[in-house]
Amino acid sequence: MPGRVVITGLGFITPIGNERAEVVASIRDLRHGLETVPWLPEAGVSVAGTVKDFDLAAFEPDAWRWPERYSIAPETLRSLPPHGVYAYCAIEQALEESRLTRAELGDGTTGLFCASAGSPRFLHHHLGEMLQSEGRRIDPWGVVRSIPGTLNFNLAAHYGIRGAVTGFASACAHALGYARDEIALGRHKRMIVVGAEEPTVESILPFAGLRALSRQTDPVLASRPFDAASDGFVGAGGAAVLILEDADVARNRGAVALAEFVGWGQSANGHSVAQSEPTGAGLETAMRRALAAAGVDPIDVDYVNAHATGTPVDDRAEAAALRRVFGDIGPAVSSTKALTGHPLSMSGALEAGICTLALDVGFIPGQAHLQTVDPECEHLRLPSSTLDVPVRTVLGNSSGFGGSNVALVLRAVR
Q1: Residue 333: which of 294, 373, 360 has the closest Cα?
Q2: What tens digit of pLDDT does each residue of 172-201 get?
């Protein structure tokens, strides 16, 4: 029989806080982490979800600054990209909360799954140097600091991971689902799942070519999922980490389970490279598969953390899918991207972390920045403020390019 999988550690470096307590406080107060930034207005885009207390703008790590509580060895730092620093700090938080030792990480039964687009900024820099010098100047660390696999290369080596190590280009929700399967099928005792991205012009501005980014200049108006006036998403970055473990293994070593990961489902729309299928049929399939895998009836779901990015077509498609799965009187729904922005490949991990907090602490995130509900989303229960209530079961949605859909189901353990 498949084993039970629990979450025992969380780590956050995000626009709304750089540790668990800060993230909880921001969600309770609906305090966003979006700012007007100086490097986007020329394209008509001026707001991003930024990471505070880090200065990683230089290309040389000697000039970087991060919170003093973290110590990163020079030999580790030399091959890390900026979002690798975010990931390192988030992993340190998660390891502390889960009480894992370095010996346990290297026992061969701990794996590492990461999701990231890599560092477009560093890739551009290193290739530019190479081409300008006609190949006479090539940074020996340029490849491992730039390409999408940079997180798994660097973090697996630093932490001595000897289990499965894989990078996911499709997004972090897939990494979470497959990590759960590795444990449930008995292949690993635990998995560290990391999502990290850089909130830079090179990572965010290309989405303007798809007309997917909000053109609002006021951060409060820029990220408005399910709102009639929403006009696109706000790019963001940072890192989020979850440690998944076999429930028996976690209990035997005295770890505290924060939530149980009871099932997941996935599907594809088969419709368009970049646009949502307008009926939401693919996401509906992913949700139904997740609920079936978890053995959960739709009526028992207390909260849905929606993928909703503030892009009207996508939000309406998700709202339609939610209506078919849950009916006219469904669970509370909100998209925390109103507070964090859309951190691209790390959004699945960040939102799964937020769902875990909702279960562990006992709250339902409110729908921030909602002024006038889109008429096609009016059937949704969108709380205007965060509700301090016990939560038993939550479902989280994620969607990506090509109509790739993932739904995760988490449940409280106490």
Answers
A1: 373
A2: 899 999 999 999 999 999 999 999 999 999
**Residue 1: is its pLDDT beyond 60?**
no
According to DSSP, residue 272 is labeled -
Tell me the HSE value of 343 on the side-chain side, using a 13 A CA sphere: 36
**In CATH, which of 3.40.47.10, 3.40.50.300, 3.40.1190.20, 3.30.70.260 is domain 5-411?**
3.40.47.10
Evaluate whether 325 touches 298 at the Cβ level (below 8 Å). yes
111 strand-pairing partners: 191
Domain ranges for the chain: 5-411
| Rg of the chain, C-alpha, whole Å | 20
Predicted local confidence at residue 335, as pLDDT: 98
Which pair of tokens denotes residue 79? 């091959």
Coil, strand or helix: which one is 76? helix
Q: Whole-model pTM?
A: 0.97
The C-alpha atoms of residue 18 and residue 26 are separated, in whole angstroms, by 11
Residues 222-259: tens digit of each pLDDT: 999 999 999 999 999 999 999 999 999 999 999 999 99
Any long-range contacts for 179-183 (C-beta under 8 Å, 24+ apart)? 179/111, 179/113, 179/244, 180/5, 180/244, 180/261, 180/264, 182/111, 183/3, 183/5, 183/244, 183/245, 183/246
CB of 304 closer than 8 Å to CB of 397 = yes
Active-site residue list: 172, 307, 342
Please report, for residues 85, 259, 357, 371, the alpha-carbon distance to residue 234 in angstroms, rounded to integers and kept in the order given: 22, 29, 23, 17
Q: How far apart are CA 141 and CA 122, in angstroms?
A: 11
Number of Cα atoms under 13 Å in the Cβ half of residue 376: 17
Amino acid at 325: V
Q: Give the tens place of pLDDT for each residue, 261-274.
A: 999 999 998 887 76
Q: How far is CA 94 from CA 26, 86, 101, 104, 191, in A?
A: 19, 13, 11, 14, 12
Alpha-carbon dihedral sign for residues 129, 135, 139, 142: positive
